[in-house]
Amino acid sequence: MSNDAGRLEGKVCVVTGGGSGIGRAVCLLFAQEGAAVVAADVNAESAERTAEAILSQDGRGTAMEVDVSQAESVRRMVESTVEELGRIDVLVNNAGFGFAATVVETEEADWDRLMSVNLKGVYLGCKYTVPVMIRQGGGSIVNTASAAGLVGVPDRAAYCASKGGVIAMTRAMALDHVGDGIRVNCIAPGSVESPYFDDIFARAEDPAALRRQMESRHPIGRLGAPAEIAQGILYLASDDSSFVTGSALSVDGGMTAH
Amino acid sequence: MRLGGKVALISGGARGMGAAEARLFAKEGARVAIGDVLEREGREAAAEIAAAGGEAMFIGMDVTSPSDWDRAVESVASRFGRLNVLVNNAAIYLRGLVEETAPEDWDRVMEVNAKGPFLGTRAAIPAMRESGGGSIVNISSFNSLVGTTTSTAYNASKAAARLLTKSTAVQYAKDGIRANAIHPGPVWTAMFTSGFPDTESIERRRAQAPLGRIGTVEDVAYGALFLASDESSYITGSDLVIDGGWTAQ
Ligand SMILES: NC(=O)c1ccc[n+]([C@@H]2O[C@H](COP(=O)([O-])OP(=O)(O)OC[C@H]3O[C@@H](n4cnc5c(N)ncnc54)[C@H](O)[C@@H]3O)[C@@H](O)[C@H]2O)c1
Ligand SMILES: NC(=O)c1ccc[n+]([C@@H]2O[C@H](COP(=O)([O-])OP(=O)(O)OC[C@H]3O[C@@H](n4cnc5c(N)ncnc54)[C@H](O)[C@@H]3O)[C@@H](O)[C@H]2O)c1
Prior knowledge:
The complex is a heterodimer of chains A (258) and B (249).
Chain A: E1 12-16, H1 21-32, E2 36-41, H2 44-56, E3 60-65, H3 71-85, E4 90-93, H4 108-118, H5 120-136, E5 139-144, H6 157-177, E6 182-189, H7 195-203, H8 207-216, H9 226-237, E7 248-251
Parallel strand pairs in A: 1-2, 1-4, 2-3, 4-5, 5-6, 6-7
Chain B: E1 7-11, H1 16-27, E2 31-36, H2 39-51, E3 55-60, H3 66-80, E4 85-88, H4 103-130, E5 134-139, H5 153-172, E6 177-184, H6 190-195, H7 199-208, H8 217-228, E7 239-242
Parallel strand pairs in B: 1-2, 1-4, 2-3, 4-5, 5-6, 6-7
Helix pairs in contact in B: 1-2, 1-8, 3-4, 4-5
């Protein structure tokens, strides 16, 4: 950066799933750009590690435990943030997970769990944060969707459905709250190097072959880095995108362009 | 500096969005070439950047001419040594329903808005490859995504630019060349006010954009900056919609 102020100077940003992967990269980047960051995660220890990493780069960061699928937990996260930091300028609904299964193989309990984190989690985050943003006169919400919400991915029926839901809800919420000064957008990453994929590779019969197959789905020939997704989220979170709302930005190495 | 060390060529950079992109890119450390048919405005835009401490040059060119493009890319390379960013921004607007659109006007709009970006992309790729990769940003329009009751040829030409972008992305990813499209909604520029000169039609546009305002050239320039920079290194073949929510509804 040059000597100008950071792109999120003075803003309070809450990032769910902030303990790992994309969420952790978002927390570190936002802090570098001057934000006060709340790293919220169901894995409290991982959120602590993110907060420590922020402090060690001289940023402002706090850890918070949250289960985004539980209304009471999300309500408390929002309340504590406002108590401690006074406001919420940016909410990144990023917590999520996936599993490999066709619709026939998907157990009902697994479907429910996936929807409750990936889709209901976004709903709850917005339900409790939007009123805070309305009171303070505006804000920016960025949801982590996926390329899997835009195109079909084999063996990911429930995951695709949850992310397609996030994209649709993003558009609707953008219209509902445009008059409140709140912008709502989502990011649609392709495949990203993260514990999420480490896990999928670890379970694969032939991890190397699966990796090659994943890479070849992206014209750019490689998987993305969490920091590359974080840059897209930064653009949507910051005032650089003040005329952007209701949009889905693909950060996918060309995956959905062919 | 978000574009430190980079060299950018911006077509239609003499005024409007293109000029805003040139100013912002220069402020973020890029050396900038403005290509335009408007000589006086183009020279003034370049001089303004230089006066603010940036580095800029003007190249008189018509985007419909293949030889103008070759000359432009050559002069950028000889003055600045490389080419990292091309913004295909030059375009013309034509209002009119299908029946009101004269066949020769359709051709002219396609010539500038679809063939222009194609020629620019074609001329820039070898220079970008030599520079170790690059980023092409095509300024399309929200009119490429949805139908409108005001224009016909313009919408089709912008849709052509959108798919040119995706094909370029898929074909040249292996060379480290990225290509993305920006789809602005209505933005205050000479193009907008000449297409929509009366208060009533401006108000109608304003009301149709959920955000309730007409965009500014800076709104679009910041998007172009993001796509031009290495911050977007994993983004290619993508649509960045900067339209105040118009196409979300
Ligand atoms: N990695 C990819 O390829 C990829 C691609 C597209 C989209 N995404 C999406 O990006 C987001 C982040 O994924 P990632 O790749 O960084 O994965 P990750 O597993 O590294 O991180 C996800 C984080 O979310 C947390 N989390 C899970 N359930 C939670 C809950 N109920 N409440 C609070 N926190 C919870 C986890 O503890 C973890 O820290 C997810 O929404 C994922 O679907 C990932
Ligand atoms: N203003 C809007 O509402 C709006 C909305 C969506 C998209 N756009 C697009 O944004 C881009 C910039 O438009 P603007 O609003 O700044 O318009 P503008 O008319 O102010 O600027 C366009 C520039 O392109 C130049 N140009 C036109 N034809 C040329 C040619 N053949 N060769 C070289 N240069 C040429 C013009 O001289 C001018 O400097 C265009 O691609 C336009 O289609 C504009």
